[in-house]
Amino acid sequence: MTNLWTSVKVGDSVLNNRLVMAPMTRSRALDSGVPGPLAAEYYAQRATMGLIITEGTQPSAQGQGYPATPGIYTAEQVDGWRKVIDAVHDQGGKIFIQLMHVGRIAHPDNLPNHEQAVAPSAIAPGEEIFTKQGMQEIPEPRELTKSEIAQTVNDYRHAAAMAIEAGADGVEIHGANGYLIHQFLGANSNQRADEYGGSIANRIRFAIEVTQAVVEEIGPERTGFRISPLNLLGGVNEGEQAAELYHVLVSQLNDFHLAYLHMMHVGHEDILNQVRADWDGPLMVNRANRPLEKLTVDLDNHVADLVSVGNYALANPDLVARLKNKIPLNKPNPETIYVNNGAVGYTDYPTAD
C-alpha cells in the first residue's frame, strides 16, 4: 500500500496521501439544514485522510430527500459548515462539500412545506424511502419546467459560492447514484421531448450546464464531479448506450479541467478503462464492496490516482494510521449509520491507541 502515501495535486490543493473519505449520508443535521453539533468533531477525527468529501448536501430546499440532511444555501448553514471546515483545517486536512440534489428520491414528509419532489420526468422510481413516519413508497415526482431547470442550475451555482464562503477547499457535484443529475442521464428516468431528453447530447445537457455554472462561480480547480456508470441505485438505468453516454459526458467534463473525476465503480471494467482514457486529470475510484487486500488495485494498475472509501473511514477515524501500521480495523455498526443517537456510531469509534 506504499503508493497510497505519496502526495498528489488535486486542483489547487496538495493532498498528503491518496486515500479519500467518500461522501456518506449520516442523517444528523438539524431541521434547519445546519450540520449537527457533533459534525465538526466527526470530520476532524478523519482529517488525516488525503481528502474528505462530505455527506451529500442539498443546494436548495427542494433538493432535500432524506430527513436530517444538511444544506448549503442559507447564511445559517454556511456558519454551521464553517465550524466543520475550520475543525478539519485545524487538523491539517482538506475538505470538499458534495452538492447533492436528490430529484425524485424524496418524499413530501421529508421536504420543507411538504412539497412534491421534482425530476426530469414524472416517473416514480418504484422504491421506498425512510421518513420520520417510517418507510414509505416514493410518490411520483413533478416534471421540471425548463425555467425550473435554469433555476436549479443557479441553485448549484449559489451553493458552490456558499461552500467556498464557508471555507471549503472545493465542491463535488453529485452526478451519480440515482439522484437528479443521474436521473437526467437515465434512459428510463428521463422521457423528456425537449432539448434535455432523448439523445445522449440532450441527456447530458443538465450535467454540463451545472458544471459550467459551478466552474464559472468558483473555478475548475475547486470543482469535482462524481459518476456511477450502470449503478442502478434509485432505479436509474442509462440504457444500451451507457458506454457511449459516459464517453461523451466524460470527454466534455474533461474540457473543464476539473480538480478530479470521482467514479463509483460497480464492476464494469470496460467503462472504467474508457473513463481513464477519456479523462486527463486526477481520477478517483470507489469500488463497491472492495476487500481491504485489494484497496490499491486501481492505483497499482495505473487506472486511478486516488482511492475513496466509505465504511472503512466511517468506522475508523484513524484509518490512515491503522493501514500504515497494519492494525486491524473497527467494523461499522449498520444499526447506527443513519440513526441520530448522539456520539453513538458517529464520533465514538475508537482509535487504535
TrEMBL record:
Its cofactor is FMN. Residues 4-330 form the NADH:flavin oxidoreductase/NADH oxidase N-terminal domain. GO terms for cellular component: cytosol. The keyword NAD does not apply. GO terms for molecular function: FMN binding; oxidoreductase activity, acting on the CH-CH group of donors, NAD or NADP as acceptor. It comes from the Bacteria. It holds the Pfam family Oxidored_FMN. Keywords: Oxidoreductase. InterPro entries: Aldolase_TIM, OxRdtase_FMN_N, Oye-like. Gene3D superfamilies: Aldolase class I (3.20.20.70). CDD domains: OYE_like_FMN (cd02933). The keyword Flavoprotein does not apply. Belongs to the NADH:flavin oxidoreductase/NADH oxidase family. PANTHER family: NADH OXIDOREDUCTASE-RELATED, NADPH DEHYDROGENASE 2-RELATED. This is Oxidoreductase. It comes from Weissella jogaejeotgali.
